[in-house]
Amino acid sequence: MENQKTHKASFFLSLFLILLSSSFVFLAHALSPAGTIDRTVKQQILASLPPEHEGTNPTTIPSSGSSQLFLISPTGKYAAFLLRRPTMVGAGGLGNDFCNIQVQEAGQSVWESDCASVSSGNTCSLVFDDRGLEIFDGSNSMWNTDADADNFLETLELVDSGDMRLRDKDGNLAWKASDKPKNNQNCGSIGSPGLAPETPPFAKPVENRSPFGQPAPTQGQQLQVPVEAPLPEAPEGQLSSDLVAVLRVSVQCHGFSIKEASVSEIQQAFRENKLTSRKLVELYLEEIEKLNPTLRAVIEVNPDALDQADKADLERSSIVRGDGRSSFSGLHGIPILIKDNIATKDKLNTTAGSYSLLGSVVPRDAGVVEKLRSSGAVILGKASLSEWCNFRSHSYITGWCARSGQGKNPYVLSDKVCASSTGSAIAVAANMVAVSLGTETDGSIICPASFNGVVGIKPTVGLTSRAGVIIISPRQDTIGPICRTVSDAVYVLDEIVGFDPRDAEATRDAEKYIPTDGYKQFLKADGLQGKRIGIVRKPFFNFPKGSSILGQTFEDHFNTLRQRGAILVDNLEIPNISSILDYSRSGEQMTMLAEFKLALNSYLSDLLTSPVRSLADVIAFNENHPDQERMKDIGQEKLLESEETTGINKEVRRAIENMERLSRDGFERLMMENQLDAMVTPRASAVTVLAIGGYPAISVPAGYESDGLPFGICFGGLRGSEPKLIEISYAFEQATKIRKPPSLRRIHVAHASVHSDL
């Protein structure tokens, strides 16, 4: 028995090493650009539709059926769906359902496959295999493209003419839909085709065991996310020490490990020729491939990321000063993830996590992305988020969006991710990327940074451009970095601040706050010396019962601040704090509802192509795609309430004036009367105070609760006070060095245990 176990472990370890050695080849196929699907396994499931009325009376009037999107053309003009339709009474077909493929343009059919009969009790699946496309009734093939290529079918295309094509591994055309036009069918209806042709003799039924193709993109799953081979099993749910060692190898290159690597360490490795941008991107892509099926932090990977990395490597090798230091910015060649509400003019989608914007084409990069590209940063991909920046429903689940599913905290593997820039924080925390960008209206940088044990900088509103960003409120929204260290966040901040003519009023007003030599000069280890920091005990330090760790930890941190030269002004109060923290009493909720509709409609009107052109269109899309958008569980009350608004009317103006008064008489009075440089608060408890006034803040890792959930310490200040906040935050970070990475072992064990469900 012992020899059998040893032999089994050795077999799985060898298998894993083989898979690991070929992971980059696998990535090249699996992470395909829009318009293509590359087949990576023998039978690859593209879409799957279960029976709608299993167990119900067969005489019941059938519904209109169901559908699942599986491919879009590069510009988003055409979309390919698997459709399932029940048989209408009198249409024949012995009560069966019918499935077929349909290519649509603006919701209208332009091509359809034959109607394939499917038992009303079986799942209908669309499979890409070595014979082309096949529709299965359970395990029986009912229709196929009959594209028997001599050279192995490998790629499915949907081109911008609306034609669907199959190519072999050498790129030769093996089949195209336009050769067999079939439009305007209505499978299962009177007068429409009845049963599909007989089962082809060469059909290969899907076996009745765990499928060896990739799963269909169901609700909450990204299209074309590759499924990994399950990790080798180990006794009692633990990974063997040999396998952990194998996993560690994957994040190293010539003695350089990307685990917890800072921007400055990466740049040093570049200079010493220990690392290239290409290799760095490959290492991060490998981590995304391994961890993302569990953490769901990344919606899309940029198919051009390696090309961008090659360009950075070429530039670095061509222009080097005599002292060996490049003349480029600190972000040159550094991969960065962009939150999915920030536009990128490339092969990536910008969707705010919603299928309603899948395939939309932006006219240009967002202002902050333009600056990142100019700095030489590599746009690695799009980070997941709480759909529509957590502004869809009053009962929304943070970290969930239709396109990527539920983001998970890498420390506790739960949905405790907080606010909306969740993927940006998760990915950085789990070492899936070096740095990331998030956005904040009210807590969406500070809170996910706190919950995921990373650093977040929420800049003064206007310091960073919102042009090309799907925002909620132009008064409150700001774009900022989420990174593992304060210094990394400052490197990013230096590159993205500044005037933008497309967000002229806000960026011109805030431009005066930008220091001449940037923000890196304020990374001082003695930055706490002489700083006056206020403590507002009530309500921010009223921890729930059983949170003794929080209370004691912050008292220890206060002692550290004092020991490092800070002057703490304790037991302060903010006037009207209860009104400030109440969304309805302050006017914040009313104002955001009105502003969101205006901002979103403006953004949508600027798109070159888009399935939706207004908030009303988004609402209608959700209603028409309830399964994809998880309408039964989540709803869209905020979207509906926003649609009912009529712009910035007198009532909204009064609400804005009320927030300005509350900020002026509250936080600003506190800061000025006590001559404070910053206010310190735990976690994200004061984000609303800072949000309604457009004030900056920085969150730094502060500790871990008993279950391992991280929490942060937040330093907030008046508009333009970033230099002081950076000095305070950096000095605190250097004095405490609290951050520690999450356990990869826990993540991999979780991935192995749920692999069959992904």
What would you say this structure looks like, in words?
- The protein is an alpha+beta fold.
- It folds into three domains: 46 residues, no CATH class; 176 residues, Agglutinin, subunit A, CATH 2.90.10.10; 393 residues, Amidase signature (AS) enzymes.
- 32% of the residues lie in helices and 18% in strands.
- The strands form six sheets. An eleven-stranded mixed beta sheet has the order 16-18-17-21-23-22-27-28-26-24-25, sandwiched between helices. Strands 3, 4, 5, 6 and 7 form a five-stranded antiparallel beta sheet that branches.
- A hairpin with a 4-residue loop joins strand 12 and strand 13.
- Helix 5 packs antiparallel against helix 6, helix 5 crosses helix 22 and helix 16 packs across helix 19.
- The longest helix has 24 residues.
- The radius of gyration is 27 Å and the shape is globular.
- 51% of the residues are buried.
- The N terminus and C terminus are likely disordered.
Structure, briefly:
The protein is α+β, with helices and mostly antiparallel strands and about 750 residues long. It folds into three domains: about 45 residues, no CATH class; about 180 residues, Bulb-type lectin domain (Agglutinin, subunit A); about 400 residues, Amidase signature (AS) domain (Amidase signature (AS) enzymes, Alpha-Beta Complex). The chain has 22 helices and 28 strands.
